[in-house]
Amino acid sequence: MLSPIDLANDGGEAWVWIQIKAEARRDAETEPALASYLDPNLRSATVADLIAARYRDPACVSFSHCLLNYKGFLACQAHRVAHKLWTESRMPLALALQSRISDVFAVDIHPAAEIGKGILFDHATGVVVGETAVIGNNVSILHHVTLGGTGKAGGDRHPKIGDGVLIGAGATILGNVKIGKGAKIGAGSVVLIDVPPKTTVVGNPARLVGGKDQPRRHDEVPGESMDHTSFISEWSDYVI
Description:
Layout: H1 4-9, H2 13-30, H3 32-35, H4 40-56, H5 63-69, H6 71-87, H7 91-105, E1 108-109, E2 114-115, E3 120-121, E4 128-129, E5 134-135, E6 140-141, E7 146-148, E8 160-161, E9 166-167, E10 172-174, E11 178-179, E12 184-185, E13 190-191, E14 200-202, E15 207-208, H8 222-225
Parallel strand pairs: 1-4, 2-5, 3-6, 4-7, 5-8, 6-9, 7-10, 8-11, 9-12, 10-13, 12-14
Antiparallel strand pairs: 14-15
């Protein structure tokens, strides 16, 4: 067997990663609390999230930077583990992990919330996602976004976010409302009712760009294009 020095000088990187994966698999077999990290669904979601951050965030210059340093990505992966624990009825551990995620990353996602793949939490500070919220695939969410309840109802009480949605910074979406596939929520908007697919809403309370009778519709997927401001030129009420 090669010495550590020989491995370092003889292209041993691949061998080291093989050993790490083998050791992690062995540890997971002996400690159920670690098994979540090796779940195939979690792995595929993690890869999709890495790709989302790398190609949607112009500040993200490499996959490794995201993997090591991007708290939105890290908070999302930690939530995925907490959610798996929750679905396995290991609720105390899931809630303890949620609390730790909130402390470390300033992101508070209830472990019962369902999150799809290809998610970008850009900056992420102040993001709050309630217990019965559902977030689809390829969704991008900026900082200080709240997916909350109205405070007066129990049960299924949080927003359902469709695939490809973009939610701007500081937006608040309350109640069991549906944000349609490919919709765009402008920064600072307060949304209390359903939003149709491929439309844009802005303001407090949020209004459909183009009006509710003939809302302006777009063809792109805003959750992937990250286009926050294309509506402005056609929004006659926009005044500085």
